TrEMBL record:
InterPro entries (UniProt xref): SecY, SecY/SEC61-alpha, SecY_CS, SecY_dom_sf
Quaternary context: Component of the Sec protein translocase complex. Heterotrimer consisting of SecY, SecE and SecG subunits. The heterotrimers can form oligomers, although 1 heterotrimer is thought to be able to translocate proteins. Interacts with the ribosome. Interacts with SecDF, and other proteins may be involved. Interacts with SecA.
Ranges that cross the membrane: 21-42, 74-101, 121-143, 155-176, 188-206, 218-239, 275-296, 316-336, 372-393, 399-419
Gene source species: Melioribacter roseus (strain DSM 23840 / JCM 17771 / VKM B-2668 / P3M-2)
Compartment list: Membrane
The name this protein goes by in its record: Protein translocase subunit SecY
Topology relative to the membrane: Multi-pass membrane protein
Similarity section: Belongs to the SecY/SEC61-alpha family.
Amino acid sequence: MATFQETFRNIFKIHELRQRILYTLALLVIVRIGAHVTLPGIDSHLLSSAMSNSTSDNLFGLYDLFVGGAFSNAALFALGIMPYISASIILQLAGAVVPYIQKLQREGEEGRKKITQWTRYGTVIISAFQAWGVTIHLLNMNYNGSPVVPEEIRGIGWTFSTIVFLVAGTVFIMWLGEQITDKGIGNGISLIIFIGIIDRFPYAILDEYRLLAAGQRNLVIEIVILAFMVLVIAGVVLVTQGTRRIPVQYAKRVVGRKVYGGVTQYIPLRVNTAGVMPIIFAQSIMFIPSTLFSFFPNNEFIASIAGYFNYESFTYSFIYAVMIVFFTYFYTAIAFNPQEVAENMKKQGGFIPGIRPGKQTAEFIDNILTKITLPGSIFLAIVAILPAFVSRFGVSGSFAQFFGGTSLLIIVGVALDTLQQIESHLLMRHYDGFMKSGKIRGRRF
């Protein structure tokens, strides 16, 4: 504990790191404020009453999770950063099939700038369409016969102004994310999603406390639940950081009077290369039946199909798990190209001991990646369906979502990435960081 306190004090001893952290916190506060500023013309009291009676087991609930409740508040930041994420995913997937985008991805800084520019344009287009859908959703919402959007302001003027506000909110959040990345600490886009999810944690703890206060939960059982949650988080951290290192040797080269190469490096293949994307893809598809049912509540056929996709049903969990395993392999194949890695190694004079450069190296890497992706995908599937099983044992729904699924994976991934960046700042100035203990070798010898 003393080491942790000393490390925390060291953070604020470094002027640049202190300024970056305070700058990041200030911008994240602005993001949370914008998530509670309701759009003009909407009755906030009727909106909260209508949203309290709606279910979260649909695409709207998933979307609201990523934007930190801004969607249910019909706030200026209701679309959040998700249109930017969608545009980024579309361009990333297009890079696997469109040769020109593949070329841009390999051009380094100039290609990255061009792709970033396209991503921004795509963000505006996607957010405009999504904002139009939000206006339709708000116009159809009512509580006990009273519309959320008053009749006197309905019309093309309100629709257009709402779309402009929502698109402007998304562009502003995108700018804030880029500012955090450039002048703050951590990845700005990821931190915005992170802070929106973690904002719900105090309310989840409060729900558990109410169960204890009402006598519906035994204190010993609550301690066991919390201990199990800690074990799950530890497992997610372990798998998130788990890698399979492949040794790579480089031949010696003599340039002038200097000798280059002759060292052994490693290719770190992550157990969970796909990250949280398989769960997002699978969850989006699994929520389609319940979302359709919300649009057609009186359709018996859609209602019967939606019954099989109930969040707590065995059918839902099984199909959900299978889809996660499939999307893990699918996204890993897109995100990591063994052929490209093998070609780069060959150009730089590197080779894997016992493996011929070129095609055999690519097949060797692909074989290892396929093997380590299987346990990673199964673990992702278990983590994804864990909240549904935990909720069956009396855990409140708001608290159960932190036992796994998208929420926990995003929280762990973003927290580890931010801690590693803080760690690098500390180590550069010869301070011990959060993630390692003991003396730095450079100071001991």
